Amino acid sequence: MTRLDDVLAATRAEGRAALVGYLPAGFPTVDGAVEAMTAMVRGGVAVVEVGLPYSDPLMDGPTIQQAVEVALVNKTSIGDVVTTVREVAATGAPTLLMTYWNPIERHGPRRLADELAAAGCAAVITPDLTPDEAGTEPSDWLGITDATGLGRIFLVAPSSTDERLRMTAAHCRGFVYAASTMGVTGTRGEVGDTAEALVKRVRAVTDIPVCVGLGVSNGSQAAQVASFADGVIVGSAFVRALLDASTPKDGCRAVESLAAELAEGVRVGRR
Q: Which one of 49, 80, 87, 196 is the catalytic residue?
């Protein structure tokens, strides 16, 4: 059992969902990102997702792309990202890395996995890597994550077949990431019915926790998703809170306040 497993098991036993908060490393600065993520934890985020800034973010909408561009202009390195993971993990909240595959491949999969494991990273989310492309040899991603003890989180979508849901869930370690809509990230006016239907389909093939992302921006939406999912993943709303703030300190206050609202929502959702 990892710290991530412990948190998800505890929230499930308490009849509530876990709040997962995302921010990219290096935004608004490397230190500022750590301060904002720490503020999220103070506000009630149970699991932190650290984004690795990448120049071609296929799944990210305009809000996250804007923040990632700032991080890239700041020349945020993979070393900065690993440092961010280490400092956020020191809060006690399970800390995940979200990254596209190209930066892993360029840095060296085993090298990055070793660095992340040493930093206390709980798991790696790879939105553009599927289990059947992750390899079966010890030098491939599945073997590397097994060897280093890192969790690995793959995505499923409403378009996924039942066979693919089963295969993907079988290779996940930590939770299954259910993308509630087809398309890029971003806040939405309503969550819609596809998320709940997808979670039900995943639960029909696995007992591993299912966390839902893409679209949640307020407490009422968090409560809606928490009524059927094990975790509620929020990214764009946290990024927007920082983007709209007049100062980094105000941004941290806004992020902490939003986290408190969302945390209350995930609790209400299971009452």
A: 49
Question: What is the three-class DSSP state of 166?
Answer: helix
Structure tokens at 142: 């599945």
Q: Encode pLDDT of 54-106 as tens digits.
A: 988 677 778 999 999 999 999 999 999 999 999 999 999 999 999 999 999 99
Residue 41, CB half-sphere, CA atoms under 13 Å: how many? Answer: 19
Residue with tokens 């596209």: 100
Amino acid at 127: P
Closest CA to 47 of 14, 81, 89: 89
Query: Active site residue: 6, 35, 60, 244, which one?
Result: 60
> Residue 6 catalytic?
no
State yes or no: is 140 an active-site residue: no
Question: What is the rounded CA–CA span in Å between residue 121 and residue 89?
Answer: 7
Which residue ranges form the domains of the chain, and what is each CATH number? 3-153+232-268 (3.20.20.70)
Residue with tokens 């979508």: 157
Strand partners, 266: none
Residue 118 CB coordination number (10 Å): 12
